What does this fold into?
Amino acid sequence: MSEAQTLFSALRQSAQPKVVDAIERLVREAPDRKLCRVNPLAFAASEGLNEEQVINAFLHASQLGVFDLSWNVLCPGCGGVLDANTSLRTVQSDEYSCALCAAGYEPTLDEMVEVTFTISPRVRHIEAHNPHELPPLEYYRQIYWSSGVDLPEDGFEEKIDEFIVECLELPPGEKAVISLQLPAEFVIVFEPVTHSAQFLDVKGEPTKERQSLSLVFDRAHRHSEPLKLRPGPMRISLENHTDVRTLPSVAVANDALHELLGRRRPFLTAKRLLSNQTFRDIFRTDTIEVDQRLKITSLTFLFTDLRGSTELYERVGDLAAFDLVKTHFGILNEIVGAEAGAVVKTIGDAVMATFPTPDRAVVAAMRMREAMRKLNDERGSEDLLLKIGIHEGPCIAVNLNERQDYFGQTVNIASRVQHLATSREIFATGSVLGDPSAFNLLTDRGLNPISQKVALRGIANEISIFAIP
It folds into this structure.
């Protein structure tokens, strides 16, 4: 049995067989470019598979060494990869700049950090394992643009030709000259390896006199200030001061460019992965450094607690109560994982969980309540009375006690909302019910949450709380 066969045999022990079959076909049959920075959500859609099962399978495959996991900082404007990291720990900059968009961005884990999977060289060698040997257009396709840019499968080169006028390979330390006729349009001299761009605002009366421009590519200079030029002959002198090949390109900022960059598709965000139970289980140490503070603009928190657990221990005894509470934890963990969430921690009889979107948290809460009702019915008692609170908002991902955790007012509010609930109640804040998917979910089920204004300790203004029947 080959090493690949051994790895996939092991993968079938921890992932859905039909998902593993699809991944194995990908590894064996797909062209090289399909195995560089695989977008698991796009793969799930193309194969008609469950997203969560696909994400979990890729995570297990990475743990086995089939794929290498990458955390890529993206430009939300053009979809370019500004920085690629083998670990979230190395996403350290307070700001990332995109020369192509002439904009700076403070990184957030919502839509600015994607997670992709590239086949390991030990399983199959692909061209992208040596990115600086890729043809220029393949470098753009496989390395520069993120997996969220929906590049066309057919006619890719023809699409690129509609806006790239010149493109050349410039070895380390070398010089080159590009001579061309500048059109009366906005032109960009772009270099994807160093993320450098020089804007040329070409307009006015054409000239026959040759205009000149000199550019040096290194890791520091970004050439972002626009130059005003006239249509006509142009000579661009280029120097590569880096230790790798660069790919200077002259592009016209026309409709073809904007149309290509406007084609987007969902991708696996760092936020979603950090709220994935499988990731938390198998990559416990590969998360965040102690001194890192990574922003998330929207995350949904769900807190649960058991009402009367002290009386439960008194009534049935420590051993029986412990077994019952342990069973309750198992049920809640399974529901959280099934709804794309993750248990951050347990505190006594309480659970703190996160979900990427409010609707998944609401579904999880209703499933939890129903599961506890069934368990109580089976036992013929009312021992497990669950209180649930849900809130959505911004937070900071941190490392506390060698564990990935979250910090901020959103977490505090979610916890206090749960404390307001009585037995079998689900309390959700206005920010949760303000999410269209969560609101429609309840409407479709004929549920009309009852609202009230409440004051929470440490919170200046009253907030809206909805009791979900």
Q: What stands out?
A: The two ends are 56 Å apart (CA to CA). Residues 164-253 form one domain. The longest helix spans residues 358-379. The chain has three domains: 3-130, 164-253, 288-468.
